[in-house]
Amino acid sequence: MARRMSRMAKSSGFQMKKKRSALKRRSPAKIQQVARKKAMKIVRDKFYPNYDEMAFQQKVKTDQIMMAKYGGKIDKIAKKQVKIITKGEGERVAKAREAADNET
């Protein structure tokens, strides 16, 4: 999957798709997804600072432990992150549109 995505990311069609999606507001489901990712990163950085240097198997095990131990905490942080991301969404879109206008 990762190899396929890295190959697709280079294509001009995919680049245009990314640019077009940057000009639109994200759906509540997408915001929830981004917030959860951010929350997991916050918890991971706090409790597992050397996560980036871990082997793949060790990362998988760490993620499982993290979900078991800190699942509730991640949900709470994600809930707060949803509000923060939603608030900043308009600004993000405005910046993207401004950048698109300057580019052409």
Could you give the topology of this structure?
Blueprint: H1 2-9, H2 12-22, H3 28-47, H4 56-103
Helix pairs in contact: 3-4
Which residues form runs of ≥5 with pLDDT under 50? none
Number of domains: 1
CA-based gyration radius:
17 Å
- Average predicted local confidence, pLDDT: 94
The ordered string of helix (H) and strand (E) elements is: HHHH
Q: Mind summarizing the main beta sheet?
A: none
Number of strands: 0
What's the helix count? Answer: 4
Shape: globular
Helix content: over 70%
Range of strand content: under 5%
Instruction: Report the end-to-end length measured between terminal Cα atoms.
Output: 33 Å
Determine the structural class based on helices, strands and strand pairing: mainly alpha
In short:
Residues 1-36 are annotated as: Disordered. The chain has helices spanning 2-9, 12-22, 28-47, 56-103.
Can you tell me about this structure?
This protein is mostly helical. It has one domain. It is built from 4 helices and no strands. The radius of gyration is 17 Å and the shape is globular.
Keywords for this entry:
globular; 104 residues; mainly alpha; single chain
